[in-house]
From TrEMBL:
InterPro entries: Ureohydrolase (IPR006035), Ureohydrolase_dom_sf (IPR023696), Ureohydrolase_Mn_BS (IPR020855). The lineage of its organism: Eukaryota, Fungi, Dikarya, Ascomycota, Pezizomycotina. Binds 2 manganese ions per subunit. Its EC number is 3.5.3.11. One of its GO terms (molecular function) is metal ion binding. Its cofactor is Mn(2+). This is agmatinase. It comes from Penicillium flavigenum. Keywords: Hydrolase, Manganese, Metal-binding, Signal. It catalyses: agmatine + H2O = urea + putrescine. Belongs to the arginase family. It is an enzyme of class 3 (hydrolase). GO terms for biological process: putrescine biosynthetic process from arginine, via agmatine; urea metabolic process.
């Protein structure tokens, strides 16, 4: 007891001695201790990578689905759905995984050297709107949730050029939505939402699979609900008139088929095909030329990217992996080659983090691919048209 009292007296003396130094107690959070800005053209210090909530590229978060008070030009939206997959489930965790993989995107400032632009420092307002609430018990209802959630944040006035004519069917300027999947089934409700705003659109589809199979060929004969899955959604999109039938293209295809008739059906759905193996002959420049020649430079274009476009060596965490794919460098180069096109929206799908390596290869690759897409959209500026459009 005597020792304890002596210890307390000693501690009290130490505290008194420190008090004599004139130090004031720090009230947290103490901003003076945080040095988050870098000299030069901007950026953030590494200590900020792990601060705040997890958003894409650490963008500001706003609950867009709950409120329309905030305006934006580009919004990220998660669609955690994976009950339309045929092989590996797990893409419902894709949105959170991609956000985790994006933590370093603007660590050193975010400047995209090949595209000569910084998507994080433009006049455009870019937000992460979180995820659509998606049920895992009813595919039909989940698809409706995704369509309505996407459309609710698409059909709003953007931050820039809100009152100027735009590419939409109503002649108005709309924001862009980049959706984080989710298995590839989500592209059907997204195209239904896009159709309300733009009518039939041109689609560039990066994938190892066609995804235009007739339901009776790809697991959909038991029921109407089963007919819509991650291998048939483009067939339904074509039948519903959501696509411009003379301008759509697949890139990266290397799947096995039920037979040559699958290609005939795909052409009926309005697609041209670029096989993955063509890169060995024509290179990335040849792939880019084929895509640009097919879609044109004036059409509104929707971009859908399946992470399985990449070889499993570069992105193992996906629902239906196919060997013989492109490298991450090759895919990023090809996407950069689409700079200047009228991208009205995009998605990246089939990222299933449970199958990734500890090094987060797939989620980083997905985030980096979207970084290229985001940069192209920012360089293009708002989706307004005419001489009055905003120049960035």
């Amino acid at each position: 007891m005597i020792v304890s009292i002596a210890g307390l007296v000693a501690l009290s003396g130490l505290a008194t001695a420190h008090g004599d130094h004139g130090q004031s107690q720090l009230a947290g959070p103490h901003q003076g201790l945080w040095y988050n800005t870098l000299p030069g053209d901007g950026g953030t210090q590494a200590d900020s990578v792990f601060s705040g909530i997890s958003t894409f590229g650490r963008l500001p978060y706003y609950p867009c689905l709950a409120s329309d008070a905030e305006k934006y030009d580009i919004a990220f939206l998660g669609a955690p759905f994976d009950t339309g997959t045929s092989y590996r489930p797990g893409a419902r965790f894709g949105p959170s995984g991609i956000r985790q993989g994006s933590r370093r995107l603007n660590l050193y400032g975010g400047y995209n050297v090949p595209l000569q632009a910084n998507p994080f420092t433009s006049d455009m307002r870019i937000l992460d709107c979180g995820d659509v609430p998606v049920t895992s018990y009813d595919n039909a209802w989940a698809i409706r949730q995704i369509e309505e959630g996407h459309n609710s944040i698409l059909m709003r006035k953007p931050y820039l050029d809100a009152n100027k004519p735009g590419l939409s069917r109503a002649g108005k300027t709309l924001p862009r939505i980049i959706t984080l999947g989710g298995d590839h089934t989500i592209t059907l409700p997204l195209l239904r939402s896009i159709n309300k705003a733009y009518g039939p659109v041109t689609v560039i589809h990066f994938d190892s699979h066609l995804d235009s199979w007739k339901p009776k060929v790809f697991g959909g004969s038991p029921s109407e609900v089963a007919a819509i899955n991650h291998g048939t959604y483009f067939y339904h999109a074509a039948m519903e008139g959501l696509l411009r039938n003379d301008t759509n293209i697949h890139a990266g295809i290397r799947t096995t088929l039920s037979g040559p008739s699958d290609y005939d059906n795909d052409g009926y759905c309005g697609f041209e095909i670029v096989e993955a193996r063509e890169i060995d002959v024509i290179g990335t420049d040849g792939i880019i030329k084929k895509i640009r020649d097919r879609v044109g430079t004036d059409n509104p274009v929707y971009l859908s990217i399946d992470i399985d476009t990449l070889d499993p060596a570069f992105a193992p965490a996906t629902g239906t992996p196919e060997t013989g794919g492109w490298s991450t460098r090759e895919l990023r180069t090809i996407i950069r080659g689409l700079d200047g096109l009228n991208f009205i929206g995009a998605d990246i799908v089939e990222v299933a983090p449970a199958y990734d390596t500890n090094a987060e290869l797939s989620t980083m690759a997905a985030a980096d691919v979207l970084y290229e897409v985001l940069t192209i959209m920012v360089k293009k500026g708002p989706l307004s048209v005419g001489e009055e459009s905003h120049e960035l």
